[in-house]
Design brief:
Blueprint (H helix, E strand, L loop, with lengths): L12 H5 L4 E3 L15 E3 L6 H14 L3 H7 L6 E3 L4 H12 E3 L6 E3 L5 H8 L4 H8 L4 E5 L5 E5 L18 H7 L2 H12 L9 H14 L5 H14 L7 H13 L3 H5 L6 H10 L15
Antiparallel strand pairs: 1-2, 3-6, 4-5, 6-7
Length: about 290
């Protein structure tokens, strides 16, 4: 599936020449009135391994440039394994992506065609919701931010042969968690630029770092991301250190930039001292689950 929402230009000639069928996932939301912005499904036969390799290379290259990704997104949603007809898959994905909020009836789109959203929302779903998301899809493969192929799927015992009777629906709490997906992606791009490779649980660590920063009362996006970046670089418990708590609180009360407040800690020796103090705490004393932060 290809995501065209942000205007990614997609050259489909190579697929058309090879006889790959395609279908648009039509959505009723006003943002998708222009058909050229709707998700596009391409059926690639398993024996056409060169085409699969072509799309894989495309996916790897498009996330290698963070500034371009921030502007135009990522076009390759991933690869789905299914025996269902293309029309069945189109109907299923349209039903899963278009949802009405229970409290207001507002029509919203869950952009599963964006692999960053897919990866993020998958970890928020319970097992029944995961089955509903996949429907007739046996497995969904995509490239994560570690440049590795990640596969999601359910056991055959959990999946029906056809579309589940209940379409995917998110709870208000899950929609609320999804609102920080963009913030998570911004942080992930910055973090990726500072390390050779991200840890496998990077989403878990990002959610926990942002939650820790917000618990200190930070509201402005740039302040939240700044403290979260320090947490990722120094220690998971950084936001609990008395010196950091003091400086963040002073910044909030005085309305001064957090960057200036933290600048009083000598770099690098001051941060190294704080890190050494936090490392004295045994892991079981600060074990946490990002889902509860």
């Amino acid at each position: 599936m290809l995501d065209r929402f942000l205007g990614n230009s997609v050259d489909l000639d190579v697929f058309a020449v090879r006889g790959c069928d395609s279908a648009e996932v039509r959505l009723r939301h006003p943002a998708f009135t222009d058909i050229s912005r709707t998700p596009l499904l391409l059926r690639i036969r398993p024996e056409d391994s060169d085409l699969i390799a072509l799309v894989l290379d495309w996916a790897m290259r498009e996330q290698a440039y963070p500034y371009r990704e921030a502007a135009v997104g990522l076009a390759v949603a991933g690869w789905m394994e299914t025996s269902a007809p293309l029309e069945t898959l189109v109907r299923h994905l349209a039903a899963a992506m278009e949802q009405r909020i229970d409290t207001s009836g507002q029509l919203r789109v869950l952009r599963l065609s964006d692999r960053r959203v897919l990866e993020y929302v998958w970890e928020l779903l319970d097992s029944a919701q995961q089955v509903s998301l996949l429907g007739p899809i046996t497995a969904w493969h995509f490239i994560d931010r570690c440049d590795a192929v990640r596969s999601i799927g359910c056991t055959s015992a959990d999946q029906d042969d056809g579309i589940p009777p209940e379409s995917l629906r998110l709870s208000p709490g899950q929609w609320l968690q999804l609102e920080q997906c963009q913030q998570i992606q911004e942080m992930a791009r910055g973090w990726r630029g500072m390390v050779d490779v991200l840890p496998r649980n990077y989403l878990h660590q990002l959610r926990a770092a942002l939650a820790a920063a917000k618990r200190l009362g930070l509201v402005a996006n740039h302040d939240v991301q700044l403290l979260a970046a320090y947490i990722l670089q120094i220690h998971p418990l950084l936001a609990s250190h008395h010196r950091v708590v003091e400086l963040v609180g002073r910044s909030i009360v005085e309305g001064s930039p957090l960057q200036d407040a933290l600048a009083v800690i000598p770099d690098p020796e001051g941060w190294e001292q704080i890190k050494s103090e936090l490392e004295l705490i045994k892991p079981q004393q600060y074990a946490f689950d990002a889902a509860h932060t």
